[in-house]
Amino acid sequence: MTTQSNQKSHLYTLMTVWFFWSFVAASNGILIPLFKEKFGLEQWQAQLVDFAFYIAYTVGSILYFIVSSVIKSDILNRIGYKNGIVYGLIISALGTLLFYPAAEMKSFPLLLSALFIVGLGFSLQQTSTQPFMIALGPPETGSHRINLGGAVNNLGGTIGPVIISFAIFGSIAADAAKNATIESVKLPYLILGALFVLLAIFFKVSKLPRITNDEEVEIGTGVLKYPQLVLGMIAIFMYVGVEVTIGSNLGEYLKVTQGLDSSQISHYVSMFWGSMMIGRWTASISNFEVSPTTKKLLTVLVPFVAFAIVLGVNALHGSDMSDLYSYAICVIIMIGAFFYCDEKPVRTLLVFSGLGAVAMLIGVLASGTVTLFAFISGGLFCSVLWPCIFSLGTAGLGKYTNQGSAYMIMMICGGAVMPVLQGIAADTIGIKQSYFVPIICFAYLVFFGIRVQGVLKKQGLDFDNAVVKGGKGGH
The Major facilitator superfamily (MFS) profile domain covers which part of the protein (predicted)? Predict the structure, then answer.
């Protein structure tokens, strides 16, 4: 039986892989304008960069089920979560290698294929990592451990675009893409591939336990009989969709409504993604063994430290961040929500989804800075939703846990679909009014929180009550 100290060590090892998921995903925003200019693409064609990356999660999950059916055994239960991560890293490394010939041939389809393969590897990594983290402690506190991974994830998302931009363009200036070529992507992604290989070796030699599902695992679609999983799949689709679509359409909102050009909008978009980091860093405090007084103090201090880091990174980019200082008001509202939620996963899901819906509604109805801050604050309220949804959606699945995890990862395709839907809405009724799409997404997440709580209670599972009974210290 693993000790609490070993569990901590295993958790920190698993956290390392989270960094690269957001590092690459956020860096796609650097590739989109570069490819659009160099290949002479339409805007919808340039958006295929994100589409190729996110749709890979769905394809990866489908392949997971096909292979499991062919071998008549659940893949992860045969190879273990640890090896699933290792093989996923190797697949992603192969994708980065494809950047070299794709750039040499100046082939946009081949570059999309490279991103697709990277995403395919990420699909297997995520399917393996998240149930692994939940298995390292009580299921009712699984969302806390996933939040810790999310904190590292968003650190990668904050610095990834800056590093990739500098590596490709030799500068982090907004207009540096004009002097770049398609061949500029070769070296950064080869280095990224080498890092994937090194990380795979690190995981292979690590002392992570070989965890599999103890129960007799079934393959196929049997897991769909669990309503929490079906509701959770839709919730993941809506969550990833709302997270990506708010950020993807923010630049267009600023251009249309405030007349800003590309060089003037980057720090606003960065603050949206930085808001994800602010929230997840705050949520990760639950994983550390500190006194209640210290925890309360950190809940106030950590968000502002993260806020300062986001401001600082953008200041290095040459952006004037003074107009975002008053965004601290939104951070204070988020801190209040954390105290009220008291680490309870269902309450957290309901409160943060509700605040997200209200923020989007304020954004649509208000104007000027209020609208801008309302839309950006969507990042704060999205920040802690994934672990709540994932842990609640896979709760009580038993022998279907691996299968349920793969189904949940499949629904990351919401990040490919919802931005397109909001784009269509923007073309039809205007960019500001198109933010009714995120309102609908958040509204479903509120419904999910209410519904799944009832479903799980009928199965004898009450996560919020279990957190209270079990205490809220470290794990």
Answer: 1-212
Interval 209-246: pLDDT, tens:
776 655 555 555 678 899 999 999 999 999 999 998 88
Question: Which candidate, 137, 87, 105, 117, places its Cα nearest to that of 24?
Answer: 117
- The tokens for 398 are 């038993």
The alpha carbon of residue 207 and the mean position of all alpha carbons in its chain are separated, in whole angstroms, by 26
Distance CA 238, CA 349 (A): 13
Place of tokens 């704060």: 380
Residue 10 has pLDDT above 90, yes or no: no
* CB environment 401-425: b (16+ within 10 A), e (fewer): bbbbbbbbbbbbbbbbbbbbbbbeb
